[in-house]
Structures are given as C-alpha cells and as structure tokens.
Amino acid sequence: MAKKKAVKKAAPAPAKTTTAKPAQKLKAVASPAKPATVDRIVMRTGEALVEAEPAWSAAEPEVVIGELDGPVGYAMANLLGDQIKGHSRVFAILNCDVQVRPATLMVSKVTVKSEAYTNILMGTVQAAIANGVLDAVRKGDIPKEKANDLGIIISVWLDPSVTSVEIDHNILFDTHRQATAKAIAKAMKHEPSIDWLLEHQHEIQHCFKPA
C-alpha cells in the first residue's frame, strides 16, 4: 500500500508591519485683521450756545446727525429739493467748490429778507460752520471713517441785527465755528445725560423765563 507523501504547508508569510507616520501639524494661518467697525448712527441730536460780548455774535445751532441712508439722509434730500423763499437750504462749504464732509445742510431759523443778511449767512457763517464740522472730525467726536456715510442738518441762528450794526466778522466766525463743534460733540456724546438732567432739573432756569 503506497504511502501518501506528506505535503508541507508553506508557513504563512509574516504580516507586513507599517510604521504610522506622525500626523502633520497644520500651520495656523492667521486671518487678516478686520478693521474696527463703527456702530451705525441712526440719529443724534444736540444744541449749543456760544457768544462773545456783542449781542449779535450769539450762535445757537441745533443739529441732527445720522446715516445718509437713514432718516437724516432722507430729510436732507427732501429739504434740499424743496426750497422755500426766505429759508434756502445750502451745504456748508469752506469756499465755493469745496464742500465739507460729513455733508452738512444749513437751515436758517430767521426768514432771510435782505441781500445783506444773505451775504453774512452764506459767507462768514457758512464758512464757520464748515470749519466747525471739520474741527469735530479732527477731535474725534465724529469718526473719520464715517465722514462719507453721515449727514448733518444744522439749524442756524444768526441775529437779524447784523445788518444794522457794524460787526466784526472774525468774532462772528469764531462763535459760529465753536458753537457748531460744541453742538456736534454734545450730540455724539448724548450730552447732557439723562442722569445729569434729573439731578440738576430744579437748579436750572430758562434765561428768557420771567423770575
């Protein structure tokens, strides 16, 4: 009886071992810094009074400040497109062909009836207001980066007596410039604050209220 040949089974091939590669660390890529954004300014309001010794020097502007694509901008467009005799609305300019930024629309509180009054309002006072606006930007009360986005409406008080007395245009320029910058600063800082008003309410008497 023939013997079966023993069949040698091949030894299993050793398992291949793989050395795990260390995970590659991703280099952190710093994202570019985003410029600081300034909150949207819908509407701010303010007023001021600045006067020198002569009565005609008094400047008492009232201002509203806000985005050009908001209620202030819409009001400016309507005022500019709806001119009224005696209350012409014009932009504040440093000189002819040099409009100030933020765009500032002047509205006279006094009904303008004479060329003499117009020349002072649209000359000395107009230039003073333009400079006052730039002073507010330079001081930081109006963010420089918002100069093209904001609009200002300024209600202007120019004493009617300026046409009947001899005036010093430098004094008039200074009071309106200072008053404009002051009114803007108060508007942007919400001054006076409600806390201050409540604390001092009974101490303050209106200057034209009879005692």
From TrEMBL:
- The highest taxon in the source lineage is Bacteria
Query: SUPFAM superfamilies from the xrefs?
Result: Ribosomal protein S5 domain 2-like
Domain Formaldehyde-activating enzyme positions: 45-208
One GO molecular function term of this record is: carbon-nitrogen lyase activity
> Where is this chain compositionally biased, Low complexity type?
9-28
KW RNA-binding (keyword) present? no
Q: State the residue spans of region: Disordered.
A: 1-28
Q: What class of enzyme is it?
A: lyase
Key words, A-Z:
Lyase
Q: What is its EC number?
A: 4.3.3.-
Q: What is this protein called?
A: Formaldehyde-activating enzyme
Native source organism of the sequence:
Planctopirus ephydatiae
Name of the gene: fae_1
